[in-house]
Amino acid sequence: MVEQAAADGVNTGRCECGGVRYRVEGPLRDVYNCHCHRCRRITGHHMAATAAPRDRVTLLAQETLRWWEPDETVGYGFCGTCGSTLFWRAQSSPDLLRIAAGTLDPPTGLRTTKAVWVAEASDYHQRPAGAEEFDHDS
What we know:
Elements: E1 3-4, E2 10-14, E3 20-25, E4 28-29, E5 31-34, H1 37-43, E6 47-53, E7 57-62, E8 65-71, E9 74-79, E10 85-90, E11 96-100, E12 112-116, E13 132-133
Parallel strand pairs: 5-12, 12-13
Antiparallel strand pairs: 1-4, 2-3, 3-7, 5-6, 6-11, 8-9, 9-10, 10-11
């Protein structure tokens, strides 16, 4: 796992309306693209997410943060006002928070290195060359 951080070791991000803002201290994991059916439907494309330990993520504003948990294994965090997808969490790794890469304030210094659940990728999307691919979770 390659980790990157902003020059000062702190990354910030938010939803479109600013109702949810966050800060991450320390390095972030490179971006993984998830093509599973849920991530495709929730984002309208695929989930491009980085990750950090939950104890390094501070919510600076969370008035509009809502969670949807379709089952006991996963939860998706979004803004209840503007609809931005911000986070997802998995029961299998409760100490890790996945962060939608597009919600981070640039520059991030991140790069996309992996695509998972490519067996469920939609037919319209041509995945970029160079990323490691897995038919299911890696």
